[in-house]
Design a protein that fits this description.
One of its GO terms (molecular function) is L-malate dehydrogenase (NAD+) activity. By secondary structure, the protein is of the alpha/beta class. Helix content is about 40%, strand content about 15%. A 6-stranded parallel β-sheet has the order 3-2-1-4-5-6, with helices on both faces. It has a 3-stranded antiparallel β-sheet with strand order 9-10-11. The longest helix is centred in the C-terminal third of the chain and has 26 residues. The radius of gyration is 20 Å and the shape is globular. The structure holds nicotinamide-adenine-dinucleotide and (2S)-2-hydroxybutanedioic acid. (2S)-2-hydroxybutanedioic acid binds next to helix 8.
């Protein structure tokens, strides 16, 4: 047994392989970077998800403590902890879904791209493990800069011969969560009633909210459009500055990651009509990766939706977004191809 999986001494513990509600087998989920600011609340939320039967928590530090803590929750998922590189393969073997929030976060004054040097290396190592131990798992990549790390992961999988573009998803859900919240404040609605598509990527001008496609259908003054676009594009920086050196968004991100992972699991289970925005391999633009709405199914991102009609403001935003995205994606590709 892996460490942190408590033995009962003389007492024989009978841990059941839990079944998700409705009798279907549950899914096996790993969180890589589980002891971090995102990883800990995300572990808590995934332990509460009735679709999860086994939860593996991997980190290079503090995994035993987080595992012991989360494992005491009386929900169905069996929790196991894994500490350090020698246990990476055990953490990954047999997983259906791997969520990656491993890596360093921003401090005030930094861009997400400033994290590339460290985080691209971390993502490479973790994805090499995935290619070897669970090549069919769906991967939810959170580590920044997402606009580059998704390309890093894709190149690692291509090199290993395991790349399935449908199963690699960059997580942009926090942009949608923020957009729903900020738009709801302007419209005076409950955020749960609001749906804002956010396309492009996950950094500054590459985050492109499509306010002309908000549901319920709404119109905004030019001042409101400027305010909302700026607030959504800089939501991450708003949190980084408020935390004043203590990191970036962790709690709202764990919520967003859990929401997106749940959508992926519902898709894997065969639920119809599961649609979320994500940064995926795409033919929607000339770029190899782009965030749009995707339909999640048994194979991962089974359908990538087109952008739909854009207004002039959004068309201009799209051009700016594509320019920056092209460079960020290429940086990720070059990191592996050399
Ligand atoms: P954190 O520093 O609190 O936690 C990161 C964790 O990763 C730490 O526990 C660390 O030990 C672990 N780690 C480092 N190297 C590792 C490795 N090789 N293998 C496994 N684990 C490793 O940071 P955080 O606030 O949790 O943020 C994590 C990442 O998520 C950052 O890159 C951040 O920019 C990004 N992020 C992305 C989004 C998004 O919307 N996609 C939102 C918020 C944060
Ligand atoms: C976010 O959007 O909150 C994350 O990408 C973290 C960051 O650096 O802003």
């Amino acid at each position: 047994l892996p460490p942190n999986f408590q033995e009962g001494g003389d007492v024989h513990l009978k841990r059941v392989d839990c079944r998700a509600k409705g009798g279907a087998p549950g899914f096996k989920v790993a969180i890589l970077g589980a002891a971090g600011g995102i990883g800990q609340p995300l572990a808590l939320l995934m332990k509460m998800n009735p679709l999860v039967s086994v939860l593996h928590l991997y980190d290079v530090v503090n995994a035993p403590g987080v595992t012991a803590d989360v494992s005491h929750m009386d929900t169905g998922a069996v929790v196991r902890g894994f500490l350090g590189q020698p246990q990476l393969e055990s953490a990954l073997t047999g997983m259906d879904l791997v969520i990656i929030p491993a890596g360093v976060p921003r401090k005030p004054g930094m861009t997400r791209d400033d994290l590339f040097k460290i985080n691209a290396g971390i993502v490479r190592t973790l994805c090499e493990g995935i290619a070897k131990c669970c090549p069919n798992a769906v991967v939810n990549l959170i580590s920044n800069p997402v606009n580059s790390t998704v390309a890093v992961a894709a190149e690692v999988f291509k090199k290993a011969g395991t790349y399935d573009p449908k199963r690699l998803l960059g997580v942009t859900t926090l942009d949608v969560v923020r957009a729903n919240t900020f738009v709801a404040e302007v419209l005076g609605l409950d955020p749960r009633e609001v749906d804002v598509p956010v396309v492009g990527g996950h950094a500054g001008v590459t985050i492109l909210p499509l306010l002309s496609q908000v549901k319920p259908p709404s119109s905004f003054s030019p001042g409101e459009v400027d305010y909302l676009t700026d607030r959504i594009q800089n939501g991450g920086t708003e949190v980084v500055e408020a935390k004043a050196g203590a990191g970036s968004a962790t709690l709202s991100m764990a919520y967003a990651a859990a929401k997106f992972a749940d959508a992926c699991l519902r898709g894997l289970k065969g639920e119809a009509g599961v649609v979320e925005c994500a940064f995926v391999a795409s033919e929607v633009t000339e770029l190899p990766f782009f965030a749009t709405k995707v339909r999640l199914g048994r194979a991962g991102a089974e359908e990538v939706y087109q952008l739909g009609p854009l207004n002039e403001y959004e068309r201009m935003g799209l051009e700016k977004a594509k320019k920056e995205l092209a460079e960020s994606i290429q940086k990720g590709i070059d990191f592996i191809r050399g």
